[in-house]
Amino acid sequence: ERLVESGGGLVQDGGSLKLSCAVSRNIFIRNSMGWCRQAPGKGRELVASISTSDTTYYGDSVKGRFTISRDTGANILYLQMDNLKPEDTAIYYCVRFPTTGLLTSMTLVESMTNSNDWGQGTQVTVSS
User: Fold this and answer.
1) Confidence band of 113 (pLDDT split at 50, 70, 90)
2) With contact defined as beta carbons under 8 Å apart, do 122 and 19 qualify?
3) Which of 25, 42, 57, 80 has its CA 20 to 30 A from that of 51?
4) Phi, psi at 107, each rounded to 5°
């Protein structure tokens, strides 16, 4: 069950991008999902997550600017990113979590080593 991301690119400070992640229907039923990112020289960061009951979490650095959502009919996970800043520059990964609950920290994510739980990553670059 692959996770296929799209939508990254280059955008100016203050611009917007929308990331998409195509998933199988079974994943949305069984798993919470989320987006993590990794900037050059830094560790991975949990950006946003959504539970199987549609509750959501956002990291402090993106709260009020990013929106996570999912289309259960089309089987797509989204991350709408508005008012982008240069510090948002990173590789963004779609992630499947081994739980139905809402993830709010990297504690579980850091132990996830199965490559099938991660998308291939999409580069987001915000120029100043």
Assistant:
1) confident
2) yes
3) 42
4) -55, -50
Residues 56 and 48 sit within 8 Å (Cβ to Cβ):
yes
**DSSP character for 99?**
S
Residue 43: CB partners within 8 Å, gap ≥ 6? Answer: none
List 22's β-bridge partners, or say none: 4, 76
Per-residue pLDDT tens over the stretch 9-41: 999 999 999 999 999 878 888 999 999 999 999
Q: Which long-range contacts (CB under 8 A, 24 or more apart) does 37-42 make?
A: 37/88, 37/90, 37/91, 37/92, 37/93, 37/124, 38/90, 38/91, 38/93, 39/87, 39/89, 39/90, 40/89, 40/90, 42/90
